[in-house]
Write a structure and sequence with these properties.
heterodimer, A: about 550 residues, four-stranded antiparallel beta sheet, about 30% helix, disordered N terminus, B: 16 helices, about 75% helix
Chain lengths: ~550, ~350
Amino acid sequence: MKSGTEDEGGVRRGLTRREMLQAGAVAGLGAGLLGTSLGAAACGSGGTAAPSSPSASGSAGALKPGGIFTLATDQLFPKDNLNPLTNTTDGVDALEGILREGLVTYDFTFTPQPRLAESWEVNTEATEYTFHLRPNVTWHDGTPFTAKDAAWSLERVMSPDGGSGMMDRLTASIEKNGVIVVDDATLKLKLKRPDSLLLLALSNQQCYFTKADSTTADFEKGVGTGPFKLKSWNPGQSYEVEKYAGYWMQGAPILDGVRGIQIPEASTKLQSVASGTASATQVSFDQLAVVNANTNLQITPYEKGITYNVVCDTTVKPFSDPRVRQAIKLSLDRKTVIDVAYAGQAFASPDAWVAMGDPFMDDSLTTMATTMDRAKAAQLMSDAGYPNGVDLTLKAPGDPLHANFSLAVVAGLKGSPFRVTAKQIPAATYWDTVWMKDPFCVDDWNRRHPVECAALNCYSNAPWNESKWKDPQMDALLSKAYATQGDALAQATTEVCQYMAAGGDGSGGSGELIPAYLNRLWTAQKSTKVVPWTFSMLDTRYCGFYA
Amino acid sequence: VSEVPNPYFSETELAPHGDIRAAVPPGKGGTAAVIWLFVRSRFLPALITLWLISVIVFASTHVLGINVARRVLGREATPEQLAAFSKAHGLDKPIFDQYTSWLSDFVKGNWGMSAASVRPVSEIVMPRLVNTLILALVAIIIALPISIAFGIYLARPGSRVRELVLTIANVSVAAIPVFVIGIVLIYAVSVQLGWTPVDSTGMSFGSWKDKAAAFILPAATLVISLIPHISRLTQVSVRETMTTPYARAAVLRGLSRRTITYGHLMPNAAGPIINVVALDLIWLIGGVIIVENVFGFPGLGTLLVESIGAGDLLVVQAVAMVFGVLFIGIGITADIFVTVFNPRLRNA
């Protein structure tokens, strides 16, 4: 299997007509596709990965070279560090994505794209990957990037001492001593199991490369191969990067530099962009009206970047009964959730890791994502021994997005057999005291390939099997998906989603209630081109200011 | 102008509450005795208070149940990784051992190494402390003369309508939350007029002019929120002294208004004003937490909020202790100033 390649102008070769149509349909925006299909996956808070969005602001006009792009964020913290394995905040993710690169990225259709690997081959069993590294790539200190650096970085990720959240994912597939340096420009990975989705895992930001034999102190210097090199960094306050003249992609970046500034107050962040002090920032849904009222500002969505979900423990009553799981999925008014929590900026999901418009959605999944049948839900509850419904308490972290989501779920289930009250728990302790412990609680997942996501939480022994759902057929479907490639993988992915959402005959599917994937909204002045890359970062190679 | 003895009150009664000079027994005076009394009445309680603060801060950060390893490594870290991290940073030890180890290091000036950022806590805290102190000092230096002048103006006899209008205006401004003042200033001064930057970005990247500009709105916010309080107290204090017999005597002696105000009224009104300024300074140190977060000003306030959110407990503890030291230090300083400024106590 041969990859596509990326030319110097940033236009991806090898993009099939089908992929193009899919991407265009997903975004409803063809104009930004070429500029952003090169985006990379990245880990957000918690280290999850997300594909790039085809959305981009400003479809007309040429960019003028140069300029300093100032990104206002509320996600820089004094605790931040530049060790790619242990930083867990969105603000540093954005900086890491500017400074460092990995082998591959993937686009909005989950198609792997080349980055430091110019091309690659995968054997038919998906048990051996050979990467041909891009020539003439140098680190910011001028030394050449080689396969030795790539191998060292990947072995760090796989080391128990590294502290990487991707350790389990990679060691589950890659053999011990399976990272092999063939020569300076060739890297081989030998696997102990078929893994057709390994490229997506390798696109995770924790798999970005650092120079071989770097120490902890070296990480803080931020040396990478990215389009910008570190000029200054003040954790919790700001960072500044400048254009790296030796960047391998000619013509990129367009900007002279990028700055990140910490502004905790949301309204100040927005006013900073409105006044021109900052170039771009993310805004919350309740700020949408303010942005729309300002004729100088524009909104650029990163579509379906993340989902907030409700976890129903399938090992305790009432959700141990599959009919109850079916009933709550049929009871939820997804439109209400989308309107109340996300101001309409979201795409309905059928309680699987996909959403409307995704490549893997078929008619059955679409029906599940758009159908609410409370009469049937009431009948199912009656059959399950709950003719009067049930009273539940939904616990959620106290931050605004999780809390709003929990309140929207309460609204979305109002009038159904599920009488739900929301309870907020301080976010500082929620993930240790509630998540994975409480039978009815809230979580969030960054967007990634449905099979990758399901493998993390639907395998019987998955590390984040929140709903504790164990189903041998689901395990078999996931194993099958990992062993297939191409169109067969796409079909297997749809089957995984279908089974997760509804299960087999009357099995109710998993205990995940996933109403929708929501957009992340970037705002900037109309004279600014914003290219969202992941839900937390921009592809600064293509951002700039119109002439 | 000679001081007119007050025939109605004794020196002790006139002394501000808790003034140590007043506590020196007659005939037992002398500098050594005063210093000892000062140490006994101020520094020892201050040390005990600081120790209590350390206990409360340490206990509360641990009672909250924040798992530092989880906050640092993220939700996807495995139990084995969490355990290894906790062991490496001594977080698996009994809480008492952690406390004694932290406290003994802290008093020696070793504030520890942040487990999250792997940087010395002092390196994280000190630059922010300097920024906050400068901001607070700028605010109080601007607010104090304006407030006192305004308070004296309010205290002077005049039209009842004028007094009513100004008092209502004063109280109204005092009732506005400080973050609202900040946001209004941003909208009016930065967004509409374009006179100042919206945020404090200049603190990170700018020239000295940009850095100075970054102080304008945060300082203005604090000044606006301070003026009503100090001016109101000045007004009340000056008006009280106006009714005293010596003030009336000064008027009858034909002294000028300026002499009466600044030579007689203000020194006697200074005690309460200094105390309220001290209280305002303490409020100021707390208030900057909000103001700094509104403007993204890199000070102790933003550091505290961000460190709590990030579970960086050593930094939280250090900042809380710094706040404690500042509160107590300001209180003691105010006592000293009250003693120095009060003309009757100078002669005690």
